[in-house]
Amino acid sequence: MTQTAIAKEKPDWAGEDWLSRLVNILIKTKPLYSLMKYQARQVLIKTAEKNGIPWRQTVKDLESSTVKQYFAEIEDSSLEYPDYYHVPFHAYDEGNLCWKAAFEAAPATESMALRVWKNEALTPEVAKARLRNSFLEVVTQYLPEQVNEVLDIGCSVGMSTMPLHQFLVDQNNGKVQTTGLDLSPHMLSVAKLRDEAKTINWVHGKAEATSFADNAFDLITLQFVLHELPNQATRDIFRECLRILRPGGCLAIVDNNPKSPVIQGLPPALFVLMKSTEPWSDEYYTFAVEENLRQMGFEYLTTVPSDPRHRTIVARKPL
Ligand SMILES: C[S@@+](CC[C@H](N)C(=O)[O-])C[C@H]1O[C@@H](n2cnc3c(N)ncnc32)[C@H](O)[C@@H]1O
């Protein structure tokens, strides 16, 4: 008897499945988790360095740089952080609110890009460019005619913002004003240091409630942000995007693809690690992004598996 494989909507290790619950129990077993976290970190750094990413050197260079001088000018000290932002994240006890996370963000992102095409011998530079281009090539098909004002939400240290800016400058004869918004002043300080030409406007703020005017942007991107959020925060951010996008403007999202066979087939050591360092995984992998965009008032345009692990979703604010 032949069996037709039924495509799964999400990995078994996320959501309510027994495997997912088992993983959650494992993660909550503290001594085991601490050991796992320590060992995984050593492997991550060693693998990155073996593949040409100078992880420890990058951290050292930042430690001895002038980066901390930007903190005071970037930080909005009146900002109240949402509770979900205070939980340990990516194995940093202070989540994104510390220098260690900010100093390691670029090498960690480069490692992530290399893992997407792990069976190809790519350099970190090539993998990084491929990751961003695979997203931008989808987005460019849906852009309004004029793209002058652009916002990258959850810009972190600018790894997504700078290629986005350059791509649009090349398309738009240089007339683009790009803003990067993030909740971590540490990340934004590193972004400002990395942005040597100081072309991008780096803003410390909460995506759910920004200080931007109504109809301010032609394009907003959320690159690898949603998997770090509880669903309610995602909905609140969609609502805010609808307010600050101009009619006809686009919201473009790229993130882990729950339907990706690679993600669904991750080896246990990897998915346990992933869930243990990303506390909102169960919510993310079971969240109907497209449906929520529609409910919020967006015109949903497309979902494309833009690389073997990620999907790009584009929606528009109706005219
Ligand atoms: C994984 S990083 C994304 C990095 C970057 N966009 C990229 O593609 O390389 C997620 C970022 O979202 C930020 N973030 C999370 N929640 C946020 C919120 N509510 N408002 C603004 N930024 C947020 C975090 O501080 C973090 O820097």
Model description:
The protein has helices spanning 18-28, 30-50, 55-63, 69-74, 99-116, 124-139, 161-171, 185-194, 231-244, 261-264, 268-277, 281-285, 289-296; strands spanning 149-153, 177-182, 201-204, 217-223, 245-256, 299-304, 310-316. Helix 5 packs across helix 6. By secondary structure, the protein is an alpha/beta fold. The protein has 13 helices and 7 strands. The chain has one domain (18-316): Rossmann fold (3-Layer(aba) Sandwich), CATH 3.40.50. The radius of gyration is 19 Å and the shape is globular. Bound molecules: S-adenosylmethionine.
List keywords for this structure.
globular, 45% helix, 7 strands, Rossmann fold, single chain, seven-stranded mixed beta sheet, 319 residues, 13 helices
Bound molecules: S-adenosylmethionine
How far is the N terminus from the C terminus?
53 Å
The CATH class turns out to be: Alpha Beta
The number of helical segments is 13
Summed over residues and divided by their number, the pLDDT gives a mean of 90
Just name the CATH architecture.
3-Layer(aba) Sandwich
> What does the largest sheet look like?
7 strands, mixed
Sheet with the most strands: spatial strand order? 3-2-1-4-5-7-6
Oligomer: single chain
State the low-pLDDT regions, or none. Answer: none
The secondary-structure class comes to alpha/beta
Beta-strand residue percentage: 5-15%
Task: Give the SSE order as H and E letters.
Answer: HHHHHHEHEHEEHEHHHHEE
Q: Specify the overall morphology.
A: globular
How large is the radius of gyration?
19 Å
CATH superfamily: Vaccinia Virus protein VP39
